[in-house]
Structure prediction request, 1254 residues.
Amino acid sequence: MSEKLTPDTDLTKPVIPAARQGKKSSRVIEHFVAPLEDTPLAAIDNVDETAAPLSLWAEAWRNLRKQPLFLISALLIVVVLVVAFFPQWFASVDPTSCTLDNSAEGARAGHPMGFTLQGCDVYSRMIYGTRASLMVGVFTTIGVLIIGGIMGALAGFYGGWIDAILARLGDIFFALPLILGAIVMMQLPAFRDNRSVWTVVLVLVIFGWPQIARITRGAVIENRNADFVTAAKALGLSRFSALVRHVVPNSLAPIIVVASISLGTFIVAEATLSFLGIGLPDTIMSWGNDIANAQPQVRNNPAVLLWPAVALSITVLSFIMLGDALRDALDPKARKR
Amino acid sequence: MSNHEKGKSVSSSAPRNDDAPLLEIRDLAITFDTQNGPVNAVRNAHLTILPGETVAIVGESGSGKSTTALAAIGLLPSNGRVSGGRIIFDGEDITNASAKRIIELRGNSIGMVPQDPMSNLNPVWKIGFQVKETLKANGLDGANSKERVAEVLSEAGLPDAAARAKQYPHEFSGGMRQRALIAIGLACRPRLLIADEPTSALDVTVQRQILDHLDRMTTELGTAVLLITHDLGLAAERAEKLVVMYKGQVVESGPALEILRNPQHPYTQRLVNSAPSLASRRLQSQKAKDALAAAVEDLDDPADAAYTGEAPMRAGHTASSIPAAAAQPVKAARPAKDGERKGAQAGETILEIKNLTKVFKLRGALGKTTDFKAVDDVSISVPRGTTMAIVGESGSGKSTVAQMALSLLAPTEGSILFDGVEVNTLKGKALFDFRRRVQPIFQDPYGSLDPMFNIYRTIEEPLKIHKIGNAKSREKKVRELLDQVSMPASTMHRFPNELSGGQRQRIAIARALALNPDVIICDEAVSALDVLVQAQVLNLLNELQEDLGLTYLFITHDLAVVRQIADHVTVMQSGRVVEASSTDDVFSNPKQVYTQELLNAIPGAALLV
Amino acid sequence: MVMFTLRRFLQLIPVFFGATLLVYFLVFATPGDPIAALSGGKPMAPAVEAALRAQYNLDQPFWVQYGLYLKNLVTLNLGQTFSGQAVSDVIGRAYPVTARLAVMALAFEAIFGVFFGVIAGLRKGKLFDSTVLVASLVVIAVPVFVLGFVLQLVVGVQLGWAKPTVSGAAPLNELVLPALVLGLVSLAYVIRLTRASVSENMSADYVRTATAKGLSRRRVVVVHILRNSLIPVVTFLGADLGSLMGGAIVTEGIFNVPGIGNLLYKAIQNGETPTVVAVVGILVIVFVVANLVVDLLYAWLDPRIRYV
Prediction:
């Protein structure tokens, strides 16, 4: 550690250095040349015309097809959708014809999951409950995508006062978590007396949009100053057209991912509200209601609670897994190849 | 038989050198496991570094130069592995050394200076802490470690080191961060320093200062340096020995100056021919060369053709006369609609920037704003059919000028006259028509094309926006444009992510040409490209200028590129014009200190033969 | 640092006003008679109705009502429950229980979440990682109340390791199981976030540089990967305090924990809007303050944002 080097003083005042002549070594250095046949010269920057052209979505699809996570979740979602649309294909027993004779009976032929306290068929109710749960999830997601997407895109793209106002508004809604806000609203008589799929959707949209808005805003900001947007403006495209044609399509990936995961959480939120007695009315068959109704007998007859819970969990899980798979496939870092 | 033995030795009458090699890489092969199976990134690589020697590996991106060097300190990415050959450091085979042994070697035997100073310091720790832990990890933190940290930092040329050590990386400029990284790399006095593109992210003048300093330090300490660079000029200037890599293989190695002057392998020859720092004259289009009836070898590679240049350099200010002559017939062939404005003679001023000033309001603490003059009283006039280059380092305001010239940003003061019409006040239809005539090409080839649009839609977009032709005629036009930029017509069904950087840049040029503009504003249009590809694109731009009578406003930080493409140069520094003249004038007789500094900073400038 | 704290504090003020206004607006501006809203739609004695009108200043214009509501909120003058107890007293009794529960859940999330997340991130693609990832997905997918019932049934009733319900005093040991349930979903998010953050930072340039300096792997992980990876996790934990409060309604209902959530649960069941509004108002304050703390913690972890 004896060396002391003099610190550079070039920093403060610019000095015009003398031209450098390169270093010459006193040692003898062998000059090696590889045989040409080992490294044939390729033409500079030729287009590879062998591979078939692939858009980003096509490429994402190609990646997705190979992902077990995607295949499993997609299959499950298809099954859930079919069940929601055509429950009669899967259950022959009427879920509403309940007789107390069957109250809390165990499983038997034709009734693989037994009966509820009211003597309803658990399996049939599970199948018929799919539609309401799924409707809440799907329509809430569509709602938050429309409101949150538009708000977020405008805030991110135009910035300025629109952004400032929307950011504050988002913060305010964030201070009231989804479930808490939904509880306050749903327990109001105006909502409590008119409970239906649509009131639940409305309430969840009101408290759910800020998240999508935030994600959209971030994605739009990332793209709004991209060179291709500037280039489009220099071509004479209006700002709004540039937003619609170039910025939004490029911002979709993260929004789709979050929307898929949110869909799952909205289904859970509906079940939670129903569980608290302020979600869907008892007249609508839903997993949340069935779980809530099974709650008092959970110690004696856990199966009644378990089956709708399993159905709910699998549905939610498949949407979350889909989101995860999409995230991997649409990852912008993986795009540049 | 190894690749090395198969190769021929050019200078062979060598008396044996008795120095034992410090680092020896023999027949190294590196394989990456990817989704599409194993990929051989490096094959048969070999190189030898003697104590105290500086060896440079030169190659384009993807040539395997960094991978080879990183393998020497066991820093390959997790999916990479050494699949063949040996790495010998100071007589010890470290190819398969234990993790413990490699950790022992790192820092005090082999140091590293990484490429990007912005991302290589941990943002959450103070600079001093990051230097100190280096000393500590290598058992060098004595009682006076604090003083030692300051000492190491000041050795690397960081002024006021003791105070600076208490700051965080985000409080440092790029150049200062790189000095801190050099301090870290050399803190434990390694015998070998791996410098991976240590300055390519910095401004040229800073780059030169830092390289000079690194040079001096390693010479004084007797440290051997393995320098990795894409810049042949820089490599030749800083290293005794060059190793040229291409597609994962070493194609040529030997004494730096000899390789530069007498390259043997065709790839090296290509590199030497294309290296912009070594070009001594403006590119000439094929037409101009033919017109001058010089005996030009007809090479298949247009990039090469430009440099063989038997054709005499354009005498003095031919800049305006030659394109004028060449452009005439092309203009006649253009759409009649453009006729009246093309009646204008070449040589007249098409773009006139007068006393342009742009002030940005910077938001400070508590809502206070401070004015920042990004562009300060800049005047530039660009004659039709010529190339005007605006040169400057980061923060010089050159890109701001470009944005204002494109009417994408409103100037604070001053005026921009395009074809005699004030651009600032254009609105509606007039602005829309102006957009047809002035088009940009941007720096980042990955950002300038919409990844969701295929190439056809990308090039068609301007035609659609301006409602030109029908679907059929537009497709014909797209094909023509692709042909003009030497891309196969089949490209139009592809997407940007399937193309290389150079190809994307050519598509961006095609899009800019779609509306038959008069002026193209190139904002660092070739800076992100590899040397060979850069040469190819520059050449294309030059040919197009000749054929279409285009006027270029060429924004760049790279004087070497200016030399190749520009007729006139405006040098900017901190928002002001420092010097403006013809390219020949500026290069042969720079009047301002700053211009001289910039010229001197071109790596390899002095090695021109 | 003082300036930063002050500015962040000032920024929270509009959020506080906005959020309380939102709650107030929801309750008093939705269609229907506010008295009906306050009474849960049940008929009530005229005396009670008059008291409610006075408490909420229903004869005043909306803005005055809101102003007085805020004043009451800040001075903890929160009115009475239907059974005649002061709401502030009820909250005062329930609050410490929920605070204990939430802090336990948060600690549980932070400790186990970061621990599992870091290990999974460091061993990305290995068996441990996959197991943790799948487990976290399942936990996220299963609703809290189902998890609660299952754990109550298995751990509390069948195995008898813990009391299935919490007694009045809510001692710490009885709160372990509810805290676990409360924190479980967020734990899964913390694991996923930490894992993603760690695995991203592992390939950061500065980590490679740190390795090149000759640091041991342990030091690289602890000093260079961990601190940087914790930044997003801290943000999440702060925001999570809010959803813990939401989750507490369900968890406390299941385990019969005498906390804020249970209070809210019962108030909802009985349609006692005044109590609901008061409790939610208090929760908003807690959430806003928690966010301030997170901002400060964030600034401490990441020096870059201190002066921005």
Observations:
- The radius of gyration of chain A is 30 Å.
- Chain A is about 60% helix and 0% strand.
